[in-house]
Design goal:
This protein has 489 residues and is of the alpha+beta class. It is built from 14 helices and 15 strands. It has helices spanning 14-19, 42-52, 81-93, 119-176, 185-198, 204-220, 232-242, 270-283, 301-314, 318-323, 337-346, 367-378, 428-432, 470-479; strands spanning 2-3, 10-11, 107-108, 115-116, 228-229, 247-252, 258-259, 349-356, 387-389, 395-399, 402-412, 417-422, 448-450, 459-467, 486-487. A hairpin with a 6-residue loop joins strand 3 and strand 4 (115-116). Helix 5 packs antiparallel against helix 6 (204-220) and helix 9 (301-314) crosses helix 11 (337-346). The radius of gyration is 56 Å and the shape is rod-shaped.
């Protein structure tokens, strides 16, 4: 079916359309506008389309010769368009000072200068500003809270890691100094003997025998003497009498027994073993009989621990006692110069702590330490004798991590000094080599320490120098509330 472009009549086919009269005047029907169906004459249809239905152009464009239309009401305003808009539609523009025609009051937004005639609309408009502002501030606050939360979590993580490191370091120090509640002499002795049996280095019958001896020693509080070597000082005296190579003079302590570490105290018992060495010399000197009338035999390590606790209970060195929580017995706690001083003073043995707190020679050496020890021994006038067997007790020598016992000092022909030390780390087999009559002196390498051999940052010594009266003991106990030492230099 085909429609006539002029009259709109429906024609059955293209052939019929060809036969349809092509001129408008021959069309039987009244022509109508295809856009608005208005009935117009054929001659007026084109003009009607151009005027009533112009083709859309770019915004603001109009056909030449047509008057400008108002964009708000469509009324043709011509040259007076601007005046028409200001007069009739100023309230829509919201321009300050526009005449609304009704003298309506204009309200200006305090945040963006927009004006409107309705106060409620203005309030809603301002509320939108405030909501937008609050949202922005809320976003900033949420960002700040998130940043603070992340920083707090980071601080907590670092604090937790620091506490973990401190705890691990503290536990390490507790293990190192025997304060980790892992048992004491007895537990370590049994554990090490079981290990020796497992490795085939000890027979089961020997294990049971030594266990029985250890239990008896602990019950009596007396050392079993298995680690003791006696007669070394006497052997040294004989050796120096015949040795004429490079030693000008030598001073030796009064008789001292050597004690070395055992399966029960290996790794932590050096302080106790050095006290046993010192006490062995004091017990051989009648000058100290009155002080030691209740200690006639060398006590075992657990017994020494109990004796130090007794000194603390008397009031000696409360600060040092608190470091050990006032308990040594049953632990593997290391002891040092302060504990030795407290124990000796509680027995009314006069002694002093000398602190060589920094090197006094080149290359980190301590020549002042050697000079002090020489003065200590040479105070006993031996005349011009080459070998001076003094009445002086040995000296307790402490440095970080270890302690030894000074039993004498050599002066070489070139005036250099050499200490003679008993070390708890030396076994009985090594010490007994010094007892051989045909010793060539090679065993002395275990004992000799020259100035260049002692390069620890700090050394402390405890030197015995007589007996205290009860009043002097009480005074020293009071003074030990803040324990001090003589510092050199």
């Amino acid at each position: 079916m085909v429609l006539c472009d002029v009259c709109g009549r429906a024609l059955p086919s293209e052939a019929a359309a060809g036969r349809h009269p092509p001129r408008p005047s021959l069309c039987r029907r009244q022509p109508r506008c295809p856009l608005c169906a208005a009935a117009v004459g054929c001659d007026e249809l084109r003009r009607h389309m151009e005027t009533a239905h112009p083709e859309p152009g770019p915004p603001g464009s109009r056909r030449p010769g047509t008057p400008a239309e108002c964009p708000f009401c469509g009324e043709a305003a011509g040259r007076e368009l601007e005046e028409h808009v200001r007069a009739r539609h100023g309230h829509l523009l919201g321009a300050p000072g526009a005449d609304t025609g009704n003298a309506e009051q204009l309200y200006e937004c305090p945040m963006c200068s927009l004006t409107c005639t309705n106060i409620q609309i203005l309030e809603e408009h301002v509320d939108l500003h405030l909501e937008e502002h609050n949202f922005s501030e809320g976003g900033d606050m949420r960002d700040l809270e998130l940043a603070q939360q992340l920083q707090t979590e980071e601080d907590e993580r670092q604090r937790s890691e620091e506490e973990k490191r401190e705890r691990e370091e503290f536990e390490k120090l507790q293990r190192q100094y025997g304060l980790d509640n892992s048992g004491g002499f007895k537990q370590q002795f049994l554990k090490n003997m079981e290990r020796e049996v497992d490795r085939g280095r000890m027979q089961p019958f020997e294990y049971h025998k030594r266990k029985a001896d250890m239990m008896e020693s602990l019950a009596s509080g007396i050392d079993d003497g298995r680690t003791k070597t006696s007669g070394v000082i006497e052997a040294l005296c004989k050796y120096y009498q015949s040795e004429n190579k490079d030693v000008r003079r030598v001073w030796l302590s009064a008789g001292v027994d050597h004690f070395h570490s055992s399966l029960g105290d290996r790794g932590w018992g050096c302080g106790y073993r050095n006290f046993q060495m010192l006490l062995s010399s004091l017990l051989q000197n009648s000058f100290y009989n009155d002080c030691l009338r209740d200690t006639t035999l060398i006590p075992s390590i657990p017994k020494i621990q109990s004796m130090i606790e007794d000194a603390w209970r008397e009031g000696f060195d409360p600060h040092g006692a608190s470091h050990f929580n006032n308990r040594l017995h049953g632990s593997k706690a290391w002891i040092g110069a302060c504990e030795i001083y407290s124990l000796l003073t509680s027995l009314r043995i006069k002694c002093q702590i000398i602190d060589f707190h920094k090197p006094t020679g080149p290359m980190g050496t301590h020549p002042r330490l050697f000079e002090w020890i020489l003065h200590y021994y040479s105070a006993d006038n031996g005349g011009g004798a080459k070998v001076v067997c003094t009445s002086k007790p040995p000296i307790y020598l402490q440095h970080q991590g270890h302690s030894r016992t000074v039993v004498g000092i050599e002066e070489k022909k070139n005036r250099s000094l050499c200490l003679l030390l008993f070390d708890p780390g030396c076994s009985s087999q090594q010490m007994q080599k010094l007892l051989k009559q045909n010793s060539d002196g090679t065993g002395l390498r275990l004992l000799r320490k020259f100035v260049g051999s002692l390069k620890e940052k700090q050394y402390q010594i405890v030197a015995v120098d007589g007996v205290l009266s009860l009043e002097e003991k009480a005074a020293r106990c009071r003074a030990s509330q803040v324990l001090t030492s003589e510092k050199i230099p």
